Amino acid sequence: MIKQEAQALWRELRGEPVPDLSGEELLARLCRDLDVADYDRVQSPFLRPSMIMRPEEWPERREG
């Protein structure tokens, strides 16, 4: 069922023939090409910006 959904998503997004791959491989290829730079999953009315620490701000990343 995942393969069928991935194939349908491929056709919708790419508009080209679906390669003969597993559902997992199709999803990996589709996701690899996504531009998610503007996506911010830390969106909550209960979080203040001062409460969020992004990976680039982690102390262990600054030390190395």
How would you sum up this structure, described in words?
The protein has three helices and no strands. Helix 1 (2-14) packs parallel to helix 2 (23-32). The model has no long low-confidence stretch (mean pLDDT 81). The chain is 44% helix and 0% strand. It starts with a helix and ends with a helix. It has 64 residues and is mainly alpha-helical. The longest helix has 13 residues, at 2-14. It has helices at 2-14, 23-32, 59-63.
Features:
64 residues; mainly alpha
Gyration radius over CA? 18 Å
Give the SSE order as H and E letters: HHH
Shape: elongated
* Biggest beta-sheet profile: none
The secondary structure category is mainly alpha
The N- and C-terminal alpha carbons lie at a distance of: 44 Å
Low-confidence stretches: none
User: What count of helical segments does DSSP give?
Assistant: 3
DSSP strand (E) fraction? Answer: under 5%
Rounded mean pLDDT score: 81
What is the share of helical residues? 40-55%
Number of strands: 0
Itemize the secondary structure elements and their pairings.
Blueprint: H1 2-14, H2 23-32, H3 59-63
Helix pairs in contact: 1-2
Could you give a quick summary of the protein structure above?
Helices cover 44% and strands 0% of the residues. By secondary structure, the protein is an all-alpha fold.
